[in-house]
């Protein structure tokens, strides 16, 4: 039976070539590598690996496997797996939805907003809020939210070790930021609207989809 997706074979072969090039870039114990070239090569491998993974997930779905199975394999929820790899149709137009993240600094901006909120710098945080969040996220709401989190997991200790998870959901760019507390983990979720203003900020348990 012919391969229904030759691009997967081509990408896999290219990934193997890039992996070999990366290994060669490491140099020898005597001659240190050119580290900028090493980073550049590693980035190429990372991009190709992501493309190969996406095609493999699509094949997996075509073969009848569920998002739950795929999520379990990748160590994420089925919803997170779908958000990353699924093909979403916009019910307003019937067209595939754009899942491209256009905010290059979304993770950095979300971390800054969450840090400002946690440390009480609300004047700075509110500069990023849209009109709805500016009206709704009062000092009282902030205090109540943080008190609820403290009641669950104690004192805030810092950002989690994992990198923020950035994705496009509908018209919003959404960032999940792992947080460390004395008695467990939480995550902050920041949603940016089309104008790159904060359209929502939430403190959630790690297992929340």
UniProtKB/TrEMBL annotation:
<feature type="domain" description="DUF3887">
    <location>
        <begin position="112"/>
        <end position="200"/>
    </location>
</feature>
<protein>
    <recommendedName>
        <fullName>DUF3887 domain-containing protein</fullName>
    </recommendedName>
</protein>
<dbReference type="Pfam" id="PF13026">
    <property type="entry name" value="DUF3887"/>
</dbReference>
<dbReference type="InterPro" id="IPR024981">
    <property type="entry name" value="DUF3887"/>
</dbReference>
């Amino acid at each position: 039976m012919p391969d229904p997706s030759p691009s997967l074979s081509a990408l896999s072969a290219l990934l193997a070539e890039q992996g070999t090039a990366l290994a060669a870039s490491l140099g020898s114990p005597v001659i240190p590598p050119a580290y900028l070239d090493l980073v550049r090569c590693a980035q190429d491998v990372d991009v190709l690996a992501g493309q190969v993974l996406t095609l493999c997930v699509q094949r997996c779905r075509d073969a009848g496997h569920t998002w739950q199975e795929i999520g379990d394999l990748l160590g994420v929820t089925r919803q997170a797996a779908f958000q990353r790899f699924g093909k979403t149709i916009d019910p307003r137009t019937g067209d595939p939805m754009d899942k491209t993240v256009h905010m290059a600094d979304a993770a950095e901006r979300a971390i800054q907003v969450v840090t400002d909120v946690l440390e009480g710098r609300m004047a700075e945080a509110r500069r990023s809020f849209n009109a709805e969040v500016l009206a709704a996220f009062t000092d009282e709401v902030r205090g109540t939210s943080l008190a609820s989190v403290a009641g669950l997991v104690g004192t805030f200790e810092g950002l989690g070790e994992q990198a923020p998870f950035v994705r496009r959901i509908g018209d919003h760019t959404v960032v999940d930021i792992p947080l460390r507390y004395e008695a467990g983990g939480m995550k902050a979720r920041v949603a940016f609207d089309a104008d790159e203003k904060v359209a929502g900020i939430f403190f959630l348990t790690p297992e929340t989809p």
